Amino acid sequence: MGKTWRCTVCGYLHKGDQPPENCPVCKVDACKFELVEEPASEVESQSVGKADFLKKQVKIFLEEMKIGFVPHAVGAHFPNALLPTAFLFLLIYIFGGGATFESAVFYLLLVVFLAVPVTFATGVLDWRKSFSGKLTPIFRKKIILGVALFVSVFITVAWRLLNPQVLTSGGLSACGYSLLILLMLGCVVMLGHYGGVLIFAKHQK
Fold first, then answer.
1. Handedness of CA 101, 153, 181, 169 (dihedral sign)
2. What three-state secondary structure class fits 15?
3. For 116-161, what is each residue's pLDDT tens digit?
4. Which among 68, 84, 101 is the end of a domain?
5. What are phi and psi of 75, to 5 degrees?
6. Residue at which a domain ends, from 68, 99, 120
7. Measuring CA to CA, which residue among 107, 119, 106 is closest to residue 79?
């Protein structure tokens, strides 16, 4: 059975006696690869006992998480998932009514408000680690979108706290509040797009 090597930058796994000269995903050289300990076989697990086998699997899992865990990828899923849901609840409230949906929009925005600074900070760390902090056009766009997202969610949360009837009262205030949520949705769509470009563009020929 061949050895398994993991890229410590992007988590790519390579099978073989030696690591590849360059990672096919992030292009770093072989020195960035680490040997991954193979999980025990079924026969081996029976011989060492279930308790020892489980301990070994937990250790392997923790080592894999230490090497390959990407905080920014995890953090980005919060605004990416919650803002479309908030916008859907907003539409349901506008066309169907129901105070519960209006409250749900606010609480979803509150979670996004708490998540965005963490997502932004981990994104900056990942940018410096994996891309040497070079301010290329795509990263400039991502930074602008990230700032626009945070400013928009800050305004909507503060607006709703200061005026709980901002949406229920209707009029221009409700329109402005709704447009800010639509703006945030556009920001996360474009941030996801540029993130996808960074990850998958290297595979396009």
1. positive
2. strand
3. 999 999 998 888 887 888 888 999 999 999 999 999 999 999 999 9
4. 68
5. -60, -35
6. 68
7. 119
